[in-house]
């Protein structure tokens, strides 16, 4: 599969088999991920690879718990549902949507490791450049994984269980973990977005402006 097709075919995968990922495939993906552009060549990043069975089981459980919290906050409650009933719904939804996470063979955590390479007073610029760079690194990883038949999904559910997440993986306060992904073989690659999301995809021409803001292509 070439790069253009891998970009077209990449989809967020949330259901995985327990098939192991070969070490050489994983290493190749890590090397490709780390070829992404990085602001000022600062390489203010690292990738934490989680494979040890107990740790990845604990991480999967945390991510599912964080997911439940996200769904509780982000999704509207059913009419007449009490907060407790809504929270119960969110836990059930996370268990169903992310239910294969405990068997995912590899988890990858994208880290920002500040290098303090910008002049003093420009910390915000530096942070923005670093976080964007981690995003590029993840995109490389996800597209390359797709080309190899492996699934990923950019995940931020760790934000909702941050203290436990940091403690589990020994991540110091100075580092940030903007993105996490499972890495494994999908039950199947989703061929498109779920109907609700597909309907929400904005036509590309409305998102492109020519020469000056306010002149959308559409
Ligand atoms: C910054 C960012 C954060 C995301 N966070 C999550 C997440 O926490 N959990 C999740 O399951 N998907 C997450 N996603 C995946 C999006 O839901 C997904 O990319 C979007 O619905 C489009 O679907 P596609 O990736 O299949 O094209 C995230 C995507 C991005 C770019």
What does this protein look like?
- The chain is mainly alpha-helical.
- 43% of the residues lie in helices and 10% in strands.
- The chain has helices at 3-9, 23-33, 53-74, 83-97, 123-147, 162-169, 195-200; strands at residues 45-50, 106-112, 176-183.
- It has a single domain (3-193), classed as NADH Oxidase (3-Layer(aba) Sandwich), CATH 3.40.109.
- Helix 1 (3-9) crosses helix 5 (123-147) and helix 3 crosses helix 4.
- It is built from 7 helices and 3 strands; from the N terminus they run ααβααβααβα.
- It starts with a helix and ends in an 18-residue tail after the last helix.
- The chain is globular.
- The chain has a 3-stranded antiparallel beta sheet.
- Residues 11-12, 14, 153-157, 193, 197 line the site of flavin mononucleotide (FMN).
What's the short version?
By secondary structure, the protein is mostly helical. It is built from seven helices and three strands, in the order ααβααβααβα.
Record the SSE blueprint.
Elements: H1 3-9, H2 23-33, E1 45-50, H3 53-74, H4 83-97, E2 106-112, H5 123-147, H6 162-169, E3 176-183, H7 195-200
Antiparallel strand pairs: 1-2, 2-3
Helix pairs in contact: 1-5, 2-5, 3-4, 3-6
Bound molecules: flavin mononucleotide (FMN).
Flavin mononucleotide binds next to loops.
What is the overall number of helices?
7
User: How large, in whole angstroms, is the Cα Rg?
Assistant: 19 Å
Bound molecules: flavin mononucleotide
The N- and C-terminal alpha carbons lie at a distance of: 31 Å
Structural class: mainly alpha
Mean pLDDT: 95
What is the succession of H and E elements?
A: HHEHHEHHEH
Helix content: 40-55%
Query: What's the level 1 CATH class?
Result: Alpha Beta
Number of domains: 1
Strand order of the largest sheet: 1-2-3
- How large is the share of residues in beta strands? 5-15%
How many beta-strand segments? 3
CATH topology: NADH Oxidase
Main beta-sheet strand count, sense and barrel state: 3 strands, antiparallel
Low-confidence stretches: none
């Amino acid at each position: 599969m070439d790069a253009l097709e891998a970009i077209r075919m990449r989809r967020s995968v949330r259901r995985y088999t327990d098939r192991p990922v070969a070490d050489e495939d994983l290493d190749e993906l890590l090397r490709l991920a780390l070829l992404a552009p990085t602001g000022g060549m600062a390489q203010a990043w690292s990738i934490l690879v989680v494979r040890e069975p107990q740790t990845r089981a604990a991480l999967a459980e945390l991510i599912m718990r964080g997911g439940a919290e996200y769904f509780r906050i982000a999704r509207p409650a059913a009419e007449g549902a009490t907060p407790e009933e809504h929270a119960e719904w969110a836990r059930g939804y996370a268990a169903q949507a992310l239910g294969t996470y405990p068997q995912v063979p590899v988890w990858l955590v994208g880290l920002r490791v500040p290098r303090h390479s910008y002049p003093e007073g420009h910390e915000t610029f530096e942070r923005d450049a670093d976080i964007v760079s981690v995003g590029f690194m993840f995109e490389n990883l996800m597209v390359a994984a797709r080309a190899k038949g492996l699934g990923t999904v950019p995940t931020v559910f760790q934000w909702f269980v941050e203290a436990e997440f940091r403690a589990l993986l020994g991540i110091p306060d100075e580092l940030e973990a903007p993105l996490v992904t499972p890495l494994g073989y999908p039950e199947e690659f989703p061929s498109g977005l779920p109907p609700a999301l597909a309907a929400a995809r904005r036509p590309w021409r409305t998102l492109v402006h020519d020469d000056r803001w306010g002149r959308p292509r559409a």
